Amino acid sequence: MDLEHKFARFGDGLSVSEDAVIEGYASLFGQVDQGSDVVQRGAYQSSLDGLAKAGQRVKMLWQHDPAQPIGVWDEVREDDKGLWVKGRLLESTQKGREAAELIRAGAMDGLSIGYRTKRAVKNDKGQRVLTELELWEVSLVTFPMLPSARVAAKGSDPEAENTWRSIAEVFNDARQELART
Fold first, then answer.
1. What angle do CA 71, 100, 96 make, to 5 degrees?
2. Cβ(85)–Cβ(73) below 8 Å
3. How, if at all, do strands 110-122 and 4-9 pair?
4. Contact call for residues 75 and 25 (beta carbons, < 8 A)
5. Which residues, in sequence order, are bridge partners of residue 62?
């Protein structure tokens, strides 16, 4: 099984504190993403329980690059809405400082999970319903796949949002095309 990625923008509750603590939703339940996947409530629980039992944490990476950890997730849990994360960007690293500034400026607002699908079913709409996932990492990313899970930034421009969403769709289509070849 290959490692898969699922993108989401930070949930409405995102906050970035002065000491670079970030929190928000990495995944929202019941919402169809641009890859026609839907994560079902409870899909992460087995993985989270296994990590806790082993004394391990979900990794915080920059753009899914395992060579670029940028912080630590202190809390990762499921709630009624989705997969909620809270962690600290390590501003003692160059990439951690950059990530903190990009988030504060509103230039970076996406999270993406790296996972393996353990169980999934197709629904009557042809969508893949993910019922059990092995969560490996949560990355800060530029372009999210789940547009509805987003942060409300001060001074947001809806027209600019639509432009960024269109650009993200082009990148997603290109990524899918490359995966076919």
1. 40
2. yes
3. antiparallel
4. no
5. 65, 140
* DSSP-derived pairing of the beta strands 128-141 and 110-122: antiparallel
Give the whole-angstrom CA distance, residue 180 versus residue 157: 35
Tally Cβ neighbours within 10 Å of residue 105. 9
- Beta bridge mates, 37: 128
Strands 59-62 and 128-141: parallel
What tokens appear for 114 in the block? 């790296």
* Closest C-alpha to 113, from 5, 1, 2: 5
**Dist CA 157 CA 38 (whole Å):** 28
Q: Report the predicted TM-score, pTM, of the whole model to 2 decimal places.
A: 0.74
| 143 backbone dihedrals φ, ψ, rounded to 5° | -115, 115
Task: Show the DSSP H helices in the chain as ranges.
Answer: 45-54, 94-105, 158-180
- Considering the segment(s) 4-180 as one domain, its CATH architecture is Alpha-Beta Barrel (3.20)
Of 22, 43, 17, whose CA–CA distance to 111 is shortest?
22
Which residues on neighbouring strands pair with residue 24, listed in sequence order? 85
Cα distance between residue 97 and residue 22, in whole Å: 13
pLDDT value, residue 90: 94
Which tens digits make up the pLDDT trace of 41-60?
Answer: 999 999 999 999 999 999 99
What is the residue extent of each domain of the chain?
Answer: 4-180
83 within 8 A of 25, measured Cβ to Cβ: yes
